[in-house]
Amino acid sequence: MNIETTFVDATIVDNVKNALRANTKLIWIESPTNPLLKVIDIKAISAIIQKHEDILLVVDNTFLTSYFQRPLELGADIVLYSITKYLNGHSDVIMGSIATNNKEAFDKLKFLQNASGIIPSPFDCYLVNRSLKTLAVRMREHMKNSLKVALFLENHPLVVKVLHPGV
Ligand SMILES: Cc1ncc(COP(=O)(O)O)c(C=O)c1O
User: Rounded to the nearest whole angstrom, what is the distance from the C-alpha of residue 97 to the centroid of ligand 1?
Assistant: First the structure.
């Protein structure tokens, strides 16, 4: 599709800044990243492109979900989710979603969705709707449990390194 890409470690904001080119249309980040759980400063990256109205910032917010992190409020234009993971949380659906507050991007994506027919089934939507009712409870427990495990492992003599944004 004639799309050029530049891969950088976005935990260092200057790497992103230095990677911008005349033909840059989109910055795509994921935070925390899968699987290394690196955390990226969404607000700082959004600030870099504040004067570039033609560059969109896309954030994959799959791991924290909207319960813990709201990228649109931090300057992102588009937020992407693999609903398959925490948003659904019951391992019985494969689905994705995009949220945007950018009308132009919305219209283009809505056209593509309609034109290519990439819509989920009513039954899968029903399952995700069921899941979202317990999102808050599940995310709080995931955080509590994973932090406890991470802190335990961090102090374990046989463990070299623990990857968890909370530690
Ligand atoms: C952060 C993140 N985004 C997106 C995806 C893709 O998810 P799916 O398999 O639901 O398309 C994954 C899958 O591992 C992921 O970890």
Answer: 11
